[in-house]
């Protein structure tokens, strides 16, 4: 049951919209405050004791058994988790306030969504009180520690821990814990009312968890849909979690404990659950909850059973109430238990083998252990064995029958194994288990085996591309889930932050070469996260040789040593790490949040600073030449700035400055005390100098706010009559660099034309007649190294330059972009910007600026990517400067930046079954805190080509290919890049055809995992960046390339392959709920004109722009209800907004569009395109499956590929 | 006269050998993270032209003094040097570009190139030495 509860929580972590860190105090309502207090203390008290307590207590408790019967979950969780707050909190929240309270501060991170999720539980048939109750507790819990910082290590650990519960379920210890805890939690008088309610509703003990888990699941699904983040893996994991989780803990952390017990129990549960897990991913949305619930019920009961036993069984051994004693005993107890398992119990062969391979330390520790208590072993065997084979039936009998089982529970391990062997389903579960410990030692063959049983096979199903017409799935495509055992999968990094093109890493470079697929990582490291454990500790534990941060995939050799998973060095666990601030327990390094979460953030000490954290400094460099004034962007910018001045990220030291330039450079003295802003003009652009000390040009935002506002109000009109047409961008940037170099920070440059005088002047290089040339596209690279050099200087001084290019003519973005590319800035391009002629662009700029100004920012950042020995990184993509082999220097990091890395396999990975990748992003937050955000991704290694193909993440592969193609087109030529793209498809498909599938060669066969590959490559060939034959302005093309390089995968995919929806018949079927809004989920349509009917209306989501295409004979009702016009003829040619009409179709359409919009950083433009209007060409360009004059249709492309393969 | 030519070639070759060694050391420093890409490249770019000139001079000298074999031996390397220098894209900061040196295995290929040149110059060194002694004896 613990497991299940954990599930519920776990998915939620990822879900919730960002609200984080601070919890709304308002939430704490329903519970009587007194009870909370009381419980809180008791809880605190108990926590430390948990470790200590030896088994006996439970029985001593009055009515403990009854408690079990009714509301066991709470006690269990508390007891079992002993270390992990989360689980406790979550489970407890349902049941008792008391239990939850102590732990609850963990829940800081829960945000509104979570609550909603809980509340949703009620809808599922649970008593509403339950939902509310849970909510309240959670929030309350959070409340006491409002700021995560105050709680050093504690708060951040957030939800993830729930998963931990599962892990920790080791019978022996747990039993003792649970016993101990139970008294505490139960006795507390307060909880009864609510709990009783619960209990009445469901007499089964398991029910609590059930309720909990159910909402969790639901919420996950919602979240999946909602956020796009939806990681299938979490989803799929949920059901299966139990077994795997237990394993790792056992192995790593606590060798002494009776691992077998855990594994067995878990495996039993897992076996029952596995089937649903497999199903789960397939139908993500509505259908899932039910089976999951059922399963979970079963699972819960198992868990319960275990726990109960645990609590009861230990009782004879000892009853210890003293804390200190307990602590000592705890250690001993652990040892004892281990001894029991290893020495005393006769092990089935398989287990022995496993243990030998994976748990070497266990043995040793057991040997030393003093007193084994082997007694109970024999009993459990029969019962468990019987239970395991028929998992489905287990639930009820177990729940009721536990009393009889009690004595034997300790030994459950041994029997379980036997049971496992006998029954096949269990066996598979067990394999997973086996695989985990094997992390380093087990051969990858196991991985291969498990592959067969896991949901993967579908990805290898051969697809005949030329015959299958509808290869595009109806629902968005999720990242494939690495074929890991379930607990690892659950711990693994979210695919939104970290993805690999091959989720099964080939063992050798030869194998990779054979597969002809690109190997690389796609990163989105600074993504806005809703759930992020933040850790404050004096020592950040890292490998001593490779400096890897400790992560969930390291193995603990014993209590005091851990083995790095990247370089395999054995390191000591520092003293501080032995103490777990979450549980306030000692000796459980494996339960530390660092080891429980693959994405964590450390607050770094001064060791990680070269200088004290600098204030946030923002400098705006504005073009005010005639061209710029004409375009009128200043109005929009100043307006946005005025609106968002208070929301600029930063602390009280935040500084801001302004510069303008035409053929001269203007500085603005805004020093406090002046009556009005003072403009200083420097006309010597050959040798730029600062007219006054930087302090008066970069001023404190709060001290000089009035002056800044004055300036912003005045700026738009200051240059209205200028006749200066020249633009001295280069000198202005040099001046900005000088101004910023003492502190570093962010420079935002607004440029509207080709820089024409001073250093860095550029010539027009574009020949308009060549725009639609099919042969050579020149000038994709920079014309001068001026901007690159300056960017590197800036990067060295921790200054990033963000470029906003708002020009109607050619401005040589290829050269200008360098200033941002190498200083880790970002590039925005608004072609033909004009504030009156092109109001939609102006509005877009306004919205983009809002996001730009208020989004999170990190200064002085460096990012290092490490990977398991044997792999090496050789090419990086994104905006940054590679300072040394694996160190990316990022003057600024923003949440919208994505990166890609190409990998090669330098040494064979034959002696490992898992590889890990870790990115560590060290940055100074806008509040002046040095922080390190660490993501760790773990992937299996495979030795067969089929497995490699089975694990292809086609979206990631396409994005990486796009990055490589950009490099190729700059360094070589566009046609080379296009050829390379086509060859990528040809090579991989022919390699697949010749080695893996032995089907007829006449057909074009692709594995199911790769079936979208040709389509996406065709989409790339028709993308602005790479297309030929269609008129494309050079700047547009270069901008598309910049975007490919710097956008994270989710956004990039939409740019490459837009999503098409039919929106004239939106229904609520399958709709999701976001913030009280119903968002319909129309199916994806393939990008072909054959899908467009004249009776329909279609929405195309191209990432940066939306098109709504209205068919000629579209239903007038739709036109009237949604567009607000009576009929097709009256729709205007230019329409960029949907009116807010009070009709159901309009509401649906708008909520759908807003929902799509909210998912991306830059607000997309909306164009309503009437059928047969001139604007349709633009729309039809995106229908990539269709033929154009210059490019293949999808079918032709397939034939072309087939031809190439046959050659 | 011939002796003078070879004495000069020998000295020039020594300089080129030292330069190759310097390239190798600097590049391996970069490989080991002892220096950053920026300073490495600016150090190396400074010496690209001297190397080019030094080698071209020897090549031309051999042509003038009609040592065909040695000239033909030097020609490919000299051509490569010039080609490499000319083909630097306009946006790059020289033959060694700090923003690209870590990409696409450029560092490795630069390293390999420096190694090959070192071997080549050593070969030339002994050849010049032999020729010089021969010339001195003949005189």
Automatic annotation (TrEMBL), chain A:
- Subcellular compartments: Cytoplasm, Cytosol; Cytoplasmic vesicle, COPII-coated vesicle membrane; Endoplasmic reticulum membrane
Q: Where is the Zinc finger Sec23/Sec24-type domain?
A: 540-576
Looking at the record, the residues that make up the Sec23/Sec24 beta-sandwich domain are 858-942
- Topology in membrane: Peripheral membrane protein
What domain of life is recorded for the organism? Eukaryota
User: Which residues fall in a compositionally biased region of kind Acidic residues?
Assistant: 321-334
Entry GO MF terms: SNARE binding; zinc ion binding
Low complexity compositional bias: what residue ranges? 196-205, 260-272, 310-320, 335-345, 358-370
The protein's matches in InterPro entries, at most eight in alphabetical order, are given as: ADF-H/Gelsolin-like_dom_sf (IPR029006), Beta-sandwich_Sec23_24 (IPR012990), Gelsolin-like_dom (IPR007123), Gelsolin-like_dom_sf (IPR036180), Sec23/24_helical_dom (IPR006900), Sec23/24_helical_dom_sf (IPR036175), Sec23/24_trunk_dom (IPR006896), SEC23_SEC24_subfamily (IPR050550)
Q: Where is the composition biased (Polar residues)?
A: 175-184, 206-215, 227-254
**Which Gene3D superfamilies does the entry mention?**
beta-sandwich domain of Sec23/24 (2.60.40.1670), Sec23/Sec24 helical domain (1.20.120.730), Severin (3.40.20.10), von Willebrand factor, type A domain (3.40.50.410), Zn-finger domain of Sec23/24 (2.30.30.380)
Q: Where is the Sec23/Sec24 helical domain?
A: 953-1053
Task: List all Pro residues biased stretches.
Answer: 186-195, 371-381
Q: What is this protein called?
A: Protein transport protein Sec24B isoform X5
Automatic annotation (TrEMBL), chain B:
Subcellular location per the Swiss-Prot or TrEMBL entry? Membrane
Q: How does it sit in the membrane?
A: Multi-pass membrane protein
Q: Which UniProt keywords apply?
A: Membrane, Transmembrane, Transmembrane helix
Q: Which residues form a coiled coil?
A: none
Pfam name, any one: Cornichon
The answer on whether this UniProt entry bears the keyword Transmembrane helix reads: yes
Q: GO CC terms on record?
A: membrane
Q: Does the keyword Acetylation apply?
A: no
Cite the SMART domains for this sequence: Cornichon (SM01398)
What residues form the membrane-spanning segments?
Answer: 6-27, 48-71, 118-137
- The lineage's top-level taxon is Eukaryota
Q: Name one GO biological process term.
A: vesicle-mediated transport
Similarity comment: family membership: Belongs to the cornichon family.
Protein name (record): Protein cornichon homolog 4 isoform X1
Q: Which gene encodes it?
A: CNIH4
């Amino acid at each position: 049951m613990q497991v299940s509860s954990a599930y519920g929580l776990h998915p939620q972590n990822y879900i919730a919209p960002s609200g984080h860190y601070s919890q709304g105090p308002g939430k704490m309502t329903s519970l009587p405050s007194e009870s909370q207090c009381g419980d809180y203390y008791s809880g605190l008290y108990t926590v430390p004791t948990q470790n200590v307590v030896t088994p006996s207590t439970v029985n001593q408790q009055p009515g403990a058994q009854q408690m079990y019967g009714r509301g066991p979950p709470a006690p269990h969780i508390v007891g079992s988790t002993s270390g992990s707050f989360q689980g406790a909190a979550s489970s407890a929240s349902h049941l008792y306030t008391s239990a939850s309270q102590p732990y609850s501060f963990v829940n800081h991170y829960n945000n509104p969504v979570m609550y909603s999720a809980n509340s949703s539980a009620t809808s599922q048939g649970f008593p509403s009180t339950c939902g509310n109750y849970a909510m309240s507790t959670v929030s309350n819990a959070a409340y006491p520690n409002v700021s995560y910082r105050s709680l050093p290590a504690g708060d951040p650990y957030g939800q993830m821990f729930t998963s931990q519960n599962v892990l920790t379920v080791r019978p022996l210890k747990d039993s003792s814990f649970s016993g101990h805890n139970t008294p505490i939690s139960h006795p507390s008088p307060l909880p009864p009312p609510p709990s009783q309610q619960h209990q009445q509703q469901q007499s089964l003990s398991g029910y609590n968890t059930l309720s909990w888990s159910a909402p969790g699941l639901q919420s996950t699904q919602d979240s999946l849909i909602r956020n796009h983040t939806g990681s299938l893996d979490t989803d799929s994991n949920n059901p299966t979690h139990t077994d795997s989780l237990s394993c790792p803990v056992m192995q790593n952390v606590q060798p002494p404990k009776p691992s077998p017990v855990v594994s067995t129990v878990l495996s039993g549960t897992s076996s029952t659950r596995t089937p649903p897990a497999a199903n789960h991913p397939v139908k993500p949305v509505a259908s899932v909850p039910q089976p999951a619930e059922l399963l979970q019920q079963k699972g819960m009961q198992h868990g319960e059973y275990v726990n109960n036993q645990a609590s009861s069984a230990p009782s004879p051994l000892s009853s210890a109430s003293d804390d200190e004693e307990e602590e000592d005993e705890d250690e001993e107890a652990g040892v004892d238990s281990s001894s029991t398992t290893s020495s005393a119990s006769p092990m089935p062969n398989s287990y022995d083998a496993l243990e030998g391979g994976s748990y070497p330390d266990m043995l040793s520790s057991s040997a030393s252990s003093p007193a084994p208590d082997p007694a109970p072993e024999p009993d459990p065997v029969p019962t468990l064995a019987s239970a395991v084979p028929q998992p489905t039936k287990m639930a009820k009998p177990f729940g009721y029958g536990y009393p009889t089982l009690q004595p034997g529970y300790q030994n459950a391990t041994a029997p379980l194994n036997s049971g496992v062997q006998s029954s096949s389903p269990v066996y598979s579960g067990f394999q997973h288990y086996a695989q985990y410990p094997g992390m380093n030692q087990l051969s990858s063959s196991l991985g291969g085996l498990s592959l067969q049983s896991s949901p993967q096979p579908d990805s290898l199903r051969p697809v005949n591309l030329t015959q299958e017409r509808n290869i595009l799935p109806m629902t968005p495509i999720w990242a494939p889930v690495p074929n890991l055992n379930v607990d690892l999968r659950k711990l693994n990094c979210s695919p939104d932050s970290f993805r690999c093109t091959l989720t099964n890493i080939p063992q050798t470079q030869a194998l990779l070469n054979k597969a002809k697929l690109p190997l690389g990582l796609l990163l989105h490291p600074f993504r806005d996260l809703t759930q992020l454990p933040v850790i404050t500790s004096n020592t950040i534990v890292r490998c001593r040789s490779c400096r890897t941060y400790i992560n969930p995939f390291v193995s603990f050799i014993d209590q005091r040593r851990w083995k790095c998973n990247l370089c395999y060095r054995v390191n000591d666990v520092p003293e501080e790490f032995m103490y777990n601030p979450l549980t306030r327990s000692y000796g459980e390094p494996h339960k530390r949040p660092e080891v429980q979460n693959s994405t964590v953030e450390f607050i770094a000490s001064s060791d990680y600073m070269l200088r004290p954290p600098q204030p946030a400094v923002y400098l705006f460099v504005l073009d005010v030449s005639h061209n710029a004034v004409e375009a009128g962007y200043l109005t929009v910018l100043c307006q946005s700035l005025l609106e968002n001045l208070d929301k600029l990220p930063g602390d009280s030291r935040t500084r801001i400055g302004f510069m303008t330039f035409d053929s001269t450079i203007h500085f603005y003295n805004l020093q406090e005390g002046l009556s009005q802003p003072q403009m200083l003009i420097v006309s010597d652009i050959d040798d730029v100098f600062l007219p006054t000390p930087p302090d008066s040009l970069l001023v404190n935002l709060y001290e000089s706010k009035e002056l800044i506002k004055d300036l912003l109000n005045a700026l738009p009109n200051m240059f209205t009559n200028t006749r200066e047409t020249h633009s001295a961008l280069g000198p202005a940037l040099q001046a900005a660099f000088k101004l910023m170099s003492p502190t570093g920070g962010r420079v935002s440059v607004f440029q509207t034309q080709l820089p024409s005088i001073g250093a860095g002047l550029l010539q027009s290089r574009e020949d308009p007649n060549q725009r639609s040339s099919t042969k050579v596209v020149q000038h994709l690279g920079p014309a001068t190294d001026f901007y690159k050099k300056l960017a590197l200087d800036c990067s060295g001084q921790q200054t990033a330059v963000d470029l906003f290019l708002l020009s109607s003519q050619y401005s040589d973005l290829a050269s200008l972009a360098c200033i941002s590319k190498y200083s880790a800035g970002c590039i925005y391009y608004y072609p033909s910007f004009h504030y009156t002629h092109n109001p939609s662009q102006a509005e877009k700029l306004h919205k983009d600026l809002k996001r730009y100004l208020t989004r999170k920012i990190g200064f002085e950042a460096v990012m290092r990517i490490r990977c398991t020995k044997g792999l090496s990184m050789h090419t990086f993509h994104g905006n940054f400067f590679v300072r040394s082999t694996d160190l990316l220097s990022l003057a600024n990091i923003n949440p919208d930046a994505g990166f890609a890395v190409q990998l090669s396999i330098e040494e064979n990975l034959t002696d490992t079954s898992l590889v890990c990748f870790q990115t560590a992003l060290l940055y100074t937050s806008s509040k002046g805190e040095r922080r390190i955000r660490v993501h760790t991704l773990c992937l299996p290694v495979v030795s067969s080509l089929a497995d490699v193909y089975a694990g292809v993440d086609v979206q990631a592969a396409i994005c990486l290919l796009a990055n490589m193609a950009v490099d190729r087109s700059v360094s070589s030529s566009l046609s080379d890049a296009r050829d390379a793209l086509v060859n990528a498809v040809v090579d991989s498909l022919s390699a697949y055809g010749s080695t893996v599938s032995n089907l007829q060669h006449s057909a074009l066969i692709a594995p199911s995992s790769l079936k979208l590959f040709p389509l996406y490559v065709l989409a790339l060939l028709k993308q602005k960046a790479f297309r030929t034959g269609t008129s494309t302005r050079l700047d547009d093309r270069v901008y598309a390339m910049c975007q490919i390089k710097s956008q994270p995968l989710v956004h990039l995919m939409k740019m490459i392959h837009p999503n098409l929806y039919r929106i004239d018949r939106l229904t609520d079927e399958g709709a999701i709920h976001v913030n009280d809004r119903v968002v319909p989920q129309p199916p994806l349509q393939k990008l072909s004109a054959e899908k467009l009917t004249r009776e329909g209306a279609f929405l195309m989501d191209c990432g940066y722009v939306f098109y709504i295409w209205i068919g000629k004979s579209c239903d007038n009702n739709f036109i009237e209800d949604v567009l607000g016009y009576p009929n097709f003829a009256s729709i205007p040619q230019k329409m960029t907004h949907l009116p807010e009409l009070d009709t159901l179709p309009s509401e649906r359409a708008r909520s759908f569009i807003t929902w799509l919009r909210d998912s991306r950083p830059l607000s997309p433009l909306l164009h309503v395109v009437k059928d047969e209007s001139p604007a349709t060409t633009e729309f039809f360009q995106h229908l990539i499956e269709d033929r154009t004059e210059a490019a293949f249709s999808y079918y032709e492309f397939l034939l072309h590929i087939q031809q190439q393969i046959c050659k | 006269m011939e002796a003078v030519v070879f004495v000069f070639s020998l000295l020039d070759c020594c300089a080129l050998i030292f330069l190759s060694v310097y390239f190798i050391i600097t590049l391996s420093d970069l490989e080991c993270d002892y220096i950053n890409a920026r300073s490495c490249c600016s150090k190396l770019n400074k010496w690209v032209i001297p190397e080019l000139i030094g080698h071209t001079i020897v090549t031309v000298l051999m042509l003038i003094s009609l040592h065909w074999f040695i000239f033909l031996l030097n020609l490919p390397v000299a051509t490569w040097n010039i080609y490499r220098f000319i083909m630097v894209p306009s946006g790059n900061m020289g033959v060694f570009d700090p923003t690209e040196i870590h990409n696409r295995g450029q560092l490795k290929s630069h390293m390999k190139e420096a190694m090959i040149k070192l071997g080549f110059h050593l070969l030339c060194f002994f050849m010049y030495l032999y020729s010089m002694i021969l010339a001195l004896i003949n005189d």
